[in-house]
Design goal:
Layout lengths: L2 H7 L4 H4 L1 H38 L6 H17 L8 H33 L6 H16 L2 H12 L3 H25 L3 H9 L4 H38 L4 H12 L3 H30 L1
Helix pairs in contact: 4-12, 5-8, 5-10, 5-11, 6-8, 7-8, 7-10, 8-10, 10-11, 10-12, 11-12
Length: about 290
């Protein structure tokens, strides 16, 4: 118990002197229970993994040969890359298609999310409206992007149309959440002062919300673009959406040409480095 508690207890009746000590003991016990719960959950997960792992390993599995084959494939991919049966222009075209898919879904998602973000912000919209919008968007975010793409592919068929809708759907839900959080960070006094002067809703949006939160909106939008590029590569293989993801799928699972897989991986890594450089420049300029 802290010294200040002891000094304060000297001037309190007998029933109240023990309260700080009792509260401290309760906090310690609560922390012990939380720590014990975490340990039990982690222990259960570890035990489940240990018990289930043998059932996943084939009966005639040879770990040594499997590791040797794995490292041989890595050597082929990263130390001996080549174009395979494709041309460099074809690989660049596939990369461009994935980039275009990410750009398109990010732009559409940002435009739609801006409107939904205004409806989801509790300092702008009625409580019932913001609660409904946030609940719907939380449900959409809870389902992975690839699942949405596969859902749309049932009705539209495998291809870029399902990929565009699936990525846009999840982008809207993601950006609505972060846009609404950015709008809610605006000081209520500023909004109330403008409302008192008779400013309309559009004046609040374009004279206060957009200028004040523009840096955060741009940062979150660029982050979503990075996510959409990674998803575009994934759905290119899983949903037949084309692009460099589809080329990776064909080279690795159909032709087993790990030389070409290495080239494709290097192209994706090169674009990821470009994105990281642009992201760093954006953060630096926005902070200034």
């Amino acid at each position: 118990m802290r010294k200040i508690d002891v000094l304060e207890n000297q001037n309190l009746p007998g029933d109240f002197k023990a309260r700080p000590k009792t509260i401290s003991i309760l906090k310690i016990k609560l922390q012990d229970h939380q720590r014990l719960s975490i340990y039990l959950i982690l222990g259960s997960l570890f035990l489940t993994t240990v018990l289930a792992l043998p059932t996943l390993i084939p009966a005639k599995f040879n770990l040594a040969s499997a590791l040797a084959g794995f490292f041989d494939n890595l050597k082929i991919m990263f130390l001996q890359p080549n174009l395979g049966d494709d041309t460099f222009q074809a690989l660049l075209k596939g990369l461009g298609q994935s980039i275009a898919l990410a750009v398109l879904t990010t732009i559409i998602g940002a435009i739609l999310a801006f409107g939904f973000g205004l409806m989801a912000a509790r300092n702008l919209a009625p409580v019932w409206l913001s609660t409904i919008v946030q609940s719907v968007m939380a449900f959409i975010r809870a389902i992975p992007t690839i699942i949405w793409v596969l859902i749309y592919s049932i009705t539209l068929g495998l291809g870029p149309n399902a990929a565009v809708l699936g990525l846009t759907f999840h982008s809207v839900a993601y950006l609505t959440k972060v846009y609404a959080d950015s709008f809610e960070d605006i000081a209520p006094e500023v909004l109330n002062a403008l409302r008192a002067t008779g400013a309309g809703f559009l004046a609040l949006v374009f004279q206060v919300l957009v200028p004040s939160s523009m840096k955060r909106l741009l940062s979150w939008t660029f982050i979503r673009f990075e996510i959409n590029f990674a998803d575009a590569v994934a759905v290119g293989a899983a949903a037949g959406a084309g692009g460099i993801g589809y080329q990776l799928f064909m080279a690795s699972n159909i032709y087993f040409n790990f030389h070409e897989v290495g080239t494709l991986v290097y192209l994706v890594l090169a674009f990821a480095l470009v994105l990281e450089f642009v992201s760093y420049q954006m953060r630096t300029r926005l902070m200034k």
